[in-house]
């Protein structure tokens, strides 16, 4: 509700990212974070507002074009290079900013997926200091996507526009989804034809099943190979083909360890001894997982025994015959919630 309420407020000019806080946040914490953000990124423009309906504070954040360029340099953000300088994409560098396409367009050089934020945001969000952090939507672009994408019928998806607005991950997903949907046309047509011309006798049906299975094996192989090629084209086009996987992932805020210099990258990082992790996995994670599996097995076995007992008694009402199945459904639901919490706890404790 807080998210929806903030979206209904009067827009603050020159705002790109909205950061909200729990209603229990005190003024001292807000001032500390505000000073921390301004000291870390002096060019960042922060406006503080209070929403009277939800009783929470929010920071409206934006940044100057120069600070965004410096941030792109620090992150190694890949941008398109002008044709006279070799074309393709490469990590952005402020020292050679003149070689990049559209560098003079302050509104168009960075796509909508590029946001701003303070340092330490993931850890503060994990600790509950920050409630939400999200970029504000561009209604003009959303309306254009609504017409060219959502409301369009039998037209190709505007994947480049999707990538510019939602980011590479979202665009890659819908690229795969569109490719998969189109590829499914071949087994659908072949299966329909095969079903139409198959006789009703068992021999013809068996032969059709074997033929259709062979077709699916060939189709699946060609589908995977074609998507590898198509996915590589999109990755190259959107500048993520040579991007290391670790640069696309946010650091895990719950991670704890001692600071050290990485022997690989020569940069400062947190290090947790592997023997401690192995010790926890052996003495805690493994026994807990085995206990969970054993309890599930015993509960299911008990439900099956109860089902046999109920079916053996002929005098019981018909409604009571469904009682073991209802109990099993309740047990499955309860175990799902319980094991989800256990899995999160094991993940947080065992991967420190």
Automatic annotation (TrEMBL):
Compartment(s) where it occurs, according to its Swiss-Prot or TrEMBL record: Membrane
Transmembrane segments: 174-197, 203-224, 278-302
GO molecular function: chloride channel activity
Main subcellular location: membrane
Keywords on record: Membrane, Transmembrane, Transmembrane helix
Domain of life: Eukaryota
A single cellular component GO annotation: plasma membrane
Bilayer topology: Multi-pass membrane protein
KW Transcription (keyword) present: no
A Pfam family annotated for this UniProt entry: Anoctamin
Family in the record: Belongs to the anoctamin family.
Record-given protein name: Anoctamin
Organism: Loxia curvirostra (Red crossbill)
Gene: Ano8_1
């Amino acid at each position: 509700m807080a998210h929806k309420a903030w979206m209904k407020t009067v827009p603050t000019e020159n705002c790109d990212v909205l950061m909200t806080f729990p209603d229990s946040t005190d003024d001292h914490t807000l001032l500390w974070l505000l000073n921390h953000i301004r000291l870390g990124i002096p060019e960042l423009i922060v406006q503080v507002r209070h929403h009277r309906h939800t009783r929470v504070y929010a920071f409206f954040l934006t940044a100057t074009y120069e600070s965004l360029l410096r941030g792109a340099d620090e992150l190694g953000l890949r941008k398109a290079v002008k044709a006279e300088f070799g074309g393709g994409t490469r990590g952005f560098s402020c020292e050679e900013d003149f070689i990049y396409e559209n560098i003079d367009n302050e509104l168009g050089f960075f796509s909508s997926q590029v946001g701003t934020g303070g340092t330490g945001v993931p850890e503060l969000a994990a600790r509950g200091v920050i409630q939400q952090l999200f970029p504000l939507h561009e209604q003009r672009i959303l309306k254009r996507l609504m017409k060219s994408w959502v409301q369009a019928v039998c037209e190709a998806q505007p994947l480049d526009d999707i990538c510019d607005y939602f980011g590479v991950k979202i665009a890659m997903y819908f690229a795969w989804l569109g490719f998969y949907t189109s590829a499914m046309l071949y087994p659908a047509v072949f299966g329909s034809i095969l079903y139409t011309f198959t006789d009703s006798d068992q021999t013809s049906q068996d032969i059709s099943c074997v033929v259709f299975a062979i077709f699916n094996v060939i189709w699946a192989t060609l589908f995977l190979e074609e998507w590898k090629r198509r996915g590589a084209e999109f990755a190259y086009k959107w500048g993520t083909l040579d991007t290391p996987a670790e640069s696309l992932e946010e650091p895990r805020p719950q991670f704890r360890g001692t600071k050290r210099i990485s022997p690989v990258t020569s940069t400062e990082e947190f290090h947790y001894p592997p023997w401690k992790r192995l010790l926890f996995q052996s003495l805690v994670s493994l026994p807990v997982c085995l206990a969970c599996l054993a309890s599930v097995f015993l509960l299911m076995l008990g439900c099956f025994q109860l089902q046999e007992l109920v079916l053996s008694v002929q005098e019981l009402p018909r409604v009571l015959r469904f009682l073991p199945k209802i109990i099993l459904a309740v047990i499955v639901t309860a175990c799902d919630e319980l094991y989800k919490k256990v899995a999160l706890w094991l993940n947080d404790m065992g991967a420190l």
